[in-house]
Each structure stands twice: as C-alpha cells, then as structure tokens.
Design goal:
The chain is of the alpha/beta class. It has four helices and 14 strands. Strands 3-4-5-2-6-9-8-7 form an eight-stranded mixed sheet, covered by helices on one side. The protein has a six-stranded mixed sheet with strand order 1-14-10-13-12-11. The radius of gyration is 17 Å and the shape is globular.
Length: 229
C-alpha cells in the first residue's frame, strides 16, 4: 500500500554534526513474492528504473535511490502480504529496539548491518503498525523538494494518535501537534524543530476494517493520470 501526492511544501530540518536527521524517513523497501510483477507495476506507474539482481532490485527515480524491492516467499496466511516498509533515522538502532520493547511494540527483524547502507531493523509499534529504524552509513541525505516519482510524505494511520505520538517521541525528537492545514478532525503532525516529518491520522471508529499502518506517498504530476495507469 502506498499513496499518490500531487504537491507539498519543501521541508527542511538541520542535520546534526554527524550528518544524521533523527526522525527523518530515509529509506523504503518493498517485500513481495513477485519481483517481476512489482517492477513492471511501479516502472509503468512512476517511471522507476531498476538494478535487478537474482532476488532483489534497487529502485531509482532518475539518479536518486528510492529503496529496494525484495523477492521473498510469503506463507499462505492472509495476514502476510507484500508491503512497503519505511525507515526512520535513529541515532542508535539497538537502543531503538529497547525502546520499542519497553513501549509495547515488537521486533520484526532484529538489528543488522547492511554493507554500503548502514544498520537497520524492522519493528511494529504498540498498535501493530510496521516501520523500520536505520542509522545510515555516512549520514542521512539532506532534505529536498521531491520531483515526480520520488517519495514526498508519509502518514501513520492510528486509532490512538496521542499514544502513538508518545511512542514515536521516544524514538526521535518528535512533538505531536494538531495539523492546522487539514480539514479532517483527528489529524496531527510529528514535528521536530518546527518542521513536519510525518502525519498521524485518526482511524474513524466506524472503520474497523482499517488497520493501523504507515502509508508512504509518492509525488506525481497528476493524481488522475497516475490512478488511471
């Protein structure tokens, strides 16, 4: 699951002396049981290009690295489906794992080092929403206004945004604030140093079928044209 976004304002947040931006989402992976179908779909939708290997493909929008698509066998379980995982920058992945555990979350993929990328792990929060944590080798990429085909925003769907804000505020220097630009009630932003890093949207009580999840957005030139494709 991912979303399309037509436009958003440029976001800037100063990097720390070690070139990290804790709380910024810096990487994304898709885990799927059909690599060929996934590359065909996203290549046709966004114009993405791929450096394909035997069981994975690195994704590029122009020259910008957009993440990786991994081929993995999925068990015949309706709760296990192909999914995108977005990674937030954290100062220490092992420390993040301890915080996740203490706050009622769980470890999906234990911390590990990936050559030429950094140290990463995958967790679920107290509501079951899956996300990644990462400390990138060489520091985080600077902020920029995304071009069409690039990641531009991310939003958490939550049944308890206040509790979610507390959970993620332990992992990064977030403050949960009301989203004054949204017409929907129960809309918040995860903010640090007065800049937004992610949105948090309350799942309506009458939508029991909607599960808490992180939803990444890709910028497109036309929502209608992208939807038709």
């Amino acid at each position: 699951v991912l979303a399309l976004c037509f436009h958003t304002a440029s976001l800037v947040w100063a990097q720390t002396p070690d070139n990290t931006i804790p709380g910024k989402f810096v990487h994304a992976d898709l885990v799927t049981n059909n690599l060929s179908a996934a590359t065909a779909f996203y290549g046709g939708l966004f114009g993405w290009e791929f450096d394909k290997r035997s069981d994975y493909a690195v994704v590029f929008a122009g020259e910008r690295d957009m993440g990786t698509i991994f081929q993995r066998d999925l068990p015949p379980d309706a709760t296990r489906k192909p999914r995108w995982v977005a990674y937030m920058s954290v100062p220490d992945v092992a420390a993040a794992q301890q915080i996740v555990t203490n706050k009622g979350g769980a470890t999906v993929l234990a911390p590990r080092t990936v050559p030429d990328l950094g140290t990463l792990a995958i967790f679920s929060d107290a509501e079951g929403a899956v996300f990644g944590a990462m400390r990138m080798d060489g520091g985080d990429p600077e902020d920029y206004l995304a071009e069409p085909g690039e990641w531009i925003w991310i939003q958490l769907l939550s049944r308890d945004p206040i509790k979610a804000g507390d959970f993620y505020g332990q992992l990064a220097p977030y403050e949960l604030v009301d989203n004054a630009h949204s017409e929907r009630s129960g809309s918040y932003l995860l903010v640090s140093q007065e800049y937004a890093r992610a949105g948090v949207l309350t799942i309506a009580a009458d939508h029991a079928e909607v599960k808490p999840t992180w939803l990444p957005f890709v910028r497109v030139e036309s929502i209608a044209a992208a939807t038709a494709r």
